[in-house]
Amino acid sequence: MDILTLLLIAPPILLALTFHEYAHAYVADKYGDDTAKQRGRLTLNPLAHLDLIGTIMIFIVHFGWAKPVPVNPLRLRNPKKDMLWISAAGPLANMILALISGILLRLLSVAAGGPEGQSLTGLLIFMVFMSLQINLALAIFNVLPIAPLDGSKILFGLLPAKHENSVYFLERYGPFILIGLIVFGRLTGVSIIGGLIWPFVGFFSKIFAGI
After folding, report:
1. Mean pLDDT of the chain
2. Tens digit of pLDDT for each residue in 83-106?
């Protein structure tokens, strides 16, 4: 990855991670748990949310993470239902950013009259395109029902009580399953996670940006 590409994709990555974590903190605070607010996480300052190693890993292996937003279920009025919405807030924030990026990409493409190569307009189009892709990938990846991803908590909030033991199993072994899938993809070149994510990225890219 050359330095220009790095400079162009860094802002979309920082924006996507920041809004994702801020959304978790915001909704948690609205539902009665101000733990994240008290720890300085109810902010759009990227430095409050970024994990150094997780951020570096994004650029190196295209997989990384931010610091998880702390949530205390005991302070929520309806822990099961509220945790569902708190968990869904991050992916929803990324979908909103993806929609905005898609609309902006349409407008820029019309204004430019087509690809502009290395011109300023062309570089801006590339940055917005990456914002679209990054936010869609982050949103869809996080709704996979594998702990510790948001999808596991969303699933827990949707399942009847008699099926909750299945989620407890996923919470216990989910991180190992997730790491195993990532390592398998890196070693074999066959990404199971990518196979789940990218068709949806393509689908929503078509809807949001027409591409």
Report:
1. 90
2. 999 999 999 999 999 999 999 999
pLDDT at 117 over 60: no
What mean pLDDT do residues 178-205 have?
Answer: 91
Residue (of 41, 205, 193) closest to 131 by Cα position: 205
164 is annotated as an active-site residue:
no
Distance of CA 82 to CAs 27, 72, 85, 151, Å? 9, 11, 5, 14
Query: What is the phi/psi pair of residue 203, to 5°?
Result: -60, -50
> How many domains are contained in the chain?
1
Domain range spanning residue 175? 3-209
Report CA-CA distances (Å) from 185 to 62, 66, 137, 182, 193.
12, 22, 16, 5, 8
Question: What value does the mean pLDDT take over residues 56-67?
Answer: 76
In order of 13, 43, 107, 204, the CA distances from 135 in angstroms are 8, 19, 19, 11
Reduced to 3 states (helix: H, G, I; strand: E, B; else coil), residue 50 is strand
Q: Say how far apart CA 149 and CA 44 lie, in whole Å.
A: 21
Span 103-120, average pLDDT: 77
The burial of 146, by beta-carbon neighbours within 10 Å (0-12 exposed, 13-18 middle, 19 or more buried), is given as buried
Q: What is the pLDDT of residue 61?
A: 66
Q: Which of 21, 116, 164, 171 is catalytic?
A: 21
